[in-house]
Amino acid sequence: RDVSKIYRSEPNMLRVEEPVIIIGDIHGQFFDMIHMFEKVVDTKGIPQTNLLFLGDYVDRGIFSLEVCVFLFCLKINFPRNVTMLRGNHESRAMTEHFTFRSEILQKFQDEEIYNLFIECFESMPIAADVHGDYLCMHGGISPELHRTSDIDNVDRFKEPPL
Fold this sequence. Notes:
By secondary structure, this protein is an alpha/beta fold. It has helices at 2-9, 30-38, 64-77, 92-97, 100-108, 111-123, and strands at residues 13-16, 20-23, 50-53, 82-84, 127-130, 134-136.
């Protein structure tokens, strides 16, 4: 719940300063993520640059839970250096259709734990502006949005339309 509070305090579009490493879909590939992470931390495990994750942390791989827990811990410990955006797989519909829900129920046998993850996912920011030069998000820009300032008016705290 701590990470959900952090996400809820953040705007829809975050400002991220350089230097930054932008990381795309992880899809439950925990060991690949750790291999990447080892390249950007010091000997104490502290990130030496800003990290911007573009979403799709879960599904497909078999370690989605571990990916989320690791990234949530990073976010809690380094909230200004770690930015996590919501991808299309961070939704109830996608996690039920693919593997995340079943992974959580297999590992915990507790629907409430799954619901807590969904609560976190539904509170994640949806876009990032890197130093005023790059607009980053998981997917494309909705045709309903005409200016980047329109992103701040999106109600992100709900299940996205399919």
